[in-house]
Automatic annotation (TrEMBL):
Taxonomic classification: Bacteria, Bacillati, Actinomycetota, Actinomycetes, Micrococcales
Record InterPro entries: ABC_BtuC-like, ABC_transptr_permease_BtuC
Membrane-spanning ranges: 14-34, 67-84, 96-117, 124-143, 155-177, 202-225, 245-274, 286-307, 313-331
Protein name as annotated: Iron ABC transporter permease
Annotated keywords: Cell membrane, Membrane, Transmembrane, Transmembrane helix, Transport
Length: 340
């Protein structure tokens, strides 16, 4: 990219990011207004700036916690997805590639059966975080051992194998002990309904560490996109960069999964949206993902609260419905590029 094109893109990127901030603020307000009993935006603004009645104050407190949790989880999943796609140079990669979701699910089932841990608690968040982290560590160890030229292929295969084994374990427990599965089945779909500040506080340190590590890796990931040999020629320690980026992706995805359960397609779809808005520079992508991820997840959560009112559709189901068409469009676009 030339200096001229870079200077032209920078003001556009700033405008895009400012626009994303505005949209995120609007979606947050809508999230505070929408629920089983709708509240108008003027009422929400008055309540936030004045003294609401006791009922409205209680409702808003719950919605504020839910909104903050969605912002943190959405940002973590989106950045994690961008890192995975950048490291593997695979636009169809997502955080589940490392088996994090399967590891978290297996840990949750085990803790529920043998330790009596319930979902939606701080203890369950730590259990899921530990399980996801261990699964990612096993996949990373297997996938990156030996010749680095084939490590990305082995990483995908190792992730598929580990996830298959862990999912089989979860199914075996669920079929053998259906009483425990009733407690687990709501968490595994991915839901913000039972989440709050306790879950956010439990995973916040890991999210912050993952985001800081991701931003430190951004410039080197730009060089890595040129190819391993080219990046090494530019003085980049490719092994260290891949390990750090995968570590950041693991921290972010495991923390998000621990907080609200596995949520599909956010980590896969959001990086595609962001690249269309800000270009291929990984630094801009990560900043964009910090904003677009929460917008997408909060938007999906709002839709889930509306379509079955007064009941609600879990956010993991909504993101799957929305993300599947985006995945198909991405595959078709990649197919056209390959034929060109």
């Amino acid at each position: 990219m030339t200096a001229g094109s870079t200077s032209r893109r920078t003001p556009r990127t700033v405008l895009v990011l400012v626009g994303c901030v505005v949209v995120l603020a609007l979606v947050c307000l809508i999230s505070l207004a929408v629920g089983s009993k709708p509240t108008s935006l003027p009422q929400v603004v008055d309540a936030l700036t004045g003294r609401p009645d006791a009922y409205l104050a209680t409702v808003l407190d719950a919605r504020i916690e839910r909104t903050l949790l969605a912002v943190g989880v959405g940002a973590a999943l989106a950045v994690s997805g961008a890192l995975m796609q950048g490291v593997t140079v695979n636009p169809l990669a997502d955080p589940g590639l490392l088996g994090i979701n399967a590891g978290a699910a297996a840990a949750m089932v085990s803790a529920s059966v043998w330790l009596g841990v319930s979902t939606g608690t701080v203890a369950s968040a730590w259990v899921a975080l530990l399980g996801g982290g261990i699964a990612a560590l096993v996949v990373h160890t297997i996938g990156t051992a030996g010749d680095t030229g084939a490590s990305m292929v082995r990483l995908v295969l190792a992730g598929a194998v580990v996830a298959a084994v862990l999912n089989a374990y979860v199914q075996a427990i669920a079929l053998s002990l259906p009483r425990h599965f009733d407690n687990y089945r709501f968490w595994v779909v991915g839901s913000l309904g039972d989440g709050g500040l306790d879950q956010l506080r439990a995973v916040a340190p890991f999210v912050v560490m993952g985001l800081v590590l991701a931003l430190l890796c951004a410039s080197s990931l730009n060089a890595l996109a040129l190819g391993t040999e080219a990046a090494a020629g530019l003085g980049v320690n490719t092994t260290l960069v891949r390990t750090a980026a995968l570590g950041a992706a693991t921290l972010l995805c495991a923390a998000a999964t621990a907080a609200v359960g596995p949520i599909a397609f956010v980590g896969l779809a959001v990086p595609h949206i962001v690249r269309a808005l800000v270009g291929l520079d990984m630094r801009r992508q990560l900043l964009g993902c910090l904003l677009v991820g929460p917008i997408v997840l909060l938007g999906a959560d709002v839709v889930g609260r509306v379509v079955l009112r007064p009941q609600e559709l879990m956010v993991g189901v909504v993101t799957a419905f929305v993300g599947a068409p985006i995945l198909l469009l991405a595959v078709r676009r990649l197919g056209r590029k390959a034929q060109a």
